[in-house]
Design a protein that fits this description.
- The chain has 16 helices and 30 strands.
- Helices cover 26% and strands 27% of the residues.
- The strands form 7 sheets. Strands 18, 19, 20, 21, 22, 24, 26, 29 and 30 form a 9-stranded mixed beta sheet that branches.
- It is elongated, with a radius of gyration of 29 Å.
- 43% of the residues are buried.
- Its cofactor is Mg(2+).
- Residues 38-242 form the Fumarylacetoacetase-like C-terminal domain.
- One of its GO terms (molecular function) is isomerase activity.
Length: 513
């Protein structure tokens, strides 16, 4: 840990008279040298970041960072050996002056002595293991650079601060505190109703859109300024250089780094930035979706069987609402049998189930492996609402559904083994997602095409989906012609299926229709 900065804020009376934000107390003094007593960080606070993540919180939420993570401008940060997703987050840091306990939004700014720049680095390789606490993913030595200099909080408008971040000299983030979901004064007031904010404590107020991954050799700079204030005060540029670490993590001591495509997309900011294909778009064009929507599952199943694929039916599930049709790409979620110690470690917090429903995209179908266990729910109305809001095509689970009628009213197609009132902990532990699973006796991989109707649900390998759809459409047309011949009085023998003579008649009909 390196000392961050050492300064004193004690503005004189004349300086205070230059701003309309004169506090109730004429002067407050805060001297920082090295480590703050507390570092409190906000999860999501900027509208741009929330829109990028596809979720906007109703209230602010927080986590702590250790004071040993603090570093000064000009320092280096190590990306540990064996990891790949070290991400920067430029932020506005508030330094508390006068202690705050149960203060109002109107007086909250009186308790902020200084504003400066911060970089809330995070290692996404460890994020899933932390389940929202961020102890390991954001608590490493050097993971909280601060500085280099203070801006007197009493001389600036808290809603008119500008934050900018550069990576290797290229602007990566630019936003203002006026675009925050939760104003800075709300963050101070909210925290003060739970705990005492003491002199020297630091609040990291969240990052806007543009946060992404950096690699060894990259140089990250963060600056906070107040361009509309007198003198346009600035923190100066907080400079951090990324270097390659030589030490990794010991599996005998704790969990190891692990990444998946969801973590990659969130670390880089998008699937495109991470170099990942748009699964839904690449596997299922609008033209192919239209074809599969027109063809019944029974017809598609017959074509898959002709190609030697007999084990592609998700058995034991039925449409919650008759007449439902789903066509989409699979986003998979796996539950394992409940074990009390594992549920304690994996069942709460931001678990695999919640992460899946937060990460589902338009046109995707959440497919849940519940081992055919009907004695517990695998989702309820809140998660169904979340999936529908994000544009999911539907949900398939070989387990139960809680809040059964409420889920049906949401209007999202759900195929399930039935209703059950119990929560996950009775039978299941939410374990992992975006991996190959077994649902209703069928193997399902992320990106597989899922089609369901009143006959059931099938899995189509993307590589042959176009071929299967075209063949099924042609077969449906032929079957309709055969049905007309039977209705006209012709015997079934030789006609269904058509022999050579009837096939010739059908082709002639197609040619002249």
């Amino acid at each position: 840990m390196q000392d961050t900065f050492s300064y004193t804020i004690n503005a004189d009376k004349e300086a205070l008279m230059t701003t309309e934000y004169e506090p109730a107390v004429e002067a407050q003094t805060v001297a920082l040298s090295g480590r703050p007593g507390k570092i409190i960080a906000v999860h999501l606070s900027y509208a741009s970041r929330a829109d990028q993540r596809g979720r906007r919180p109703a209230h602010p939420s927080y986590f702590f960072k250790p004071s040993s993570s603090v570093a000064q401008s000009g320092s280096v940060i190590e990306r540990p050996a064996g990891t790949e997703l070290l991400a920067f987050e430029g932020e506005v840091a508030l330094v508390i002056g006068n202690p705050a306990r149960r203060v109002s939004m109107e007086t909250a700014w009186d308790h902020v002595a200084a504003v400066t720049a911060a970089n809330d680095f995070g290692l996404y390789d460890l994020r899933a293991n932390d389940k929202g606490s961020n102890v390991r993913s954001k608590g490493g030595d050097g993971f909280t650079p601060l500085g280099p200099g203070p801006i007197d909080a009493r001389l600036v408008d808290p809603d008119a601060l500008r934050l900018r971040t550069w990576v290797n000299g290229v602007l990566a983030q630019e936003d203002t505190t006026g675009e925050m979901i939760f104003p800075l004064t709300q963050l101070v007031a909210d925290l003060s109703q739970h705990l005492t904010l003491e002199t020297g404590d630091v609040i990291l107020t969240g990052t806007p859109a543009g946060s992404s991954v950096v690699v060894p050799g990259d140089v990250v700079e963060v600056e906070v300024d107040a361009p509309t204030a007198s003198g346009a005060p600035t923190s100066g540029r907080l400079v951090t250089t990324v270097v390659a670490g030589t030490r990794g993590f010991d599996s005998d001591l704790g969990s190891l780094p692990a990444v998946d495509d969801t973590q990659r997309a969130e670390a880089w900011g998008s699937r495109e930035a991470a170099g990942l294909p748009d699964v839904a778009a690449s596997a299922l064009s609008e033209e192919l979706r239209d074809k599969l929507t027109r063809v019944p599952v029974a017809g598609l199943s017959a074509q898959l069987r002709k190609r030697g694929l007999n084990n592609v039916s998700i058995d034991g599930v039925r449409a919650q609402t008759r007449g439902s049709k789903i066509v989409g790409t699979a986003k998979t979620l796996r539950f394992v049998p409940n074990r009390e110690d594992l549920f304690a470690s994996h069942g709460g917090g931001y678990n695999a189930q919640k992460r899946t429903f937060d990460a589902v995209g338009p046109g995707e179908v959440i497919v849940i492996e519940a081992r055919g266990e009907k004695g517990s729910g695998t989702l309820g109305d809140i998660l169904a609402i979340r999936a529908k809001t994000l544009g999911a095509e539907g949900i398939v689970t070989d387990g139960g559904v809680r809040d059964y009628d409420a889920v049906a009213e949401i209007g999202l197609p759900v195929f399930t083994a039935g209703a059950h009132p119990a929560v996950l902990g009775r039978k299941h532990v939410p374990w992992d997602f975006d991996l190959t699973i077994a649902c209703g006796g069928a193997t399902v991989q992320p990106g597989d095409i899922i089609v369901g109707d009143d006959d059931g649900v099938i899995v189509i390998p993307p590589a042959i989906a176009e071929e299967v759809a075209d063949a099924a459409i042609e077969q449906e047309e032929q079957d309709a012609w055969v049905a007309d011949q039977v209705a006209a009085g012709h015997p079934v023998d030789g006609l269904f299926p058509p022999n050579a003579e009837w096939k010739a008649r059908y082709l002639e009909w197609r040619h002249h229709r």
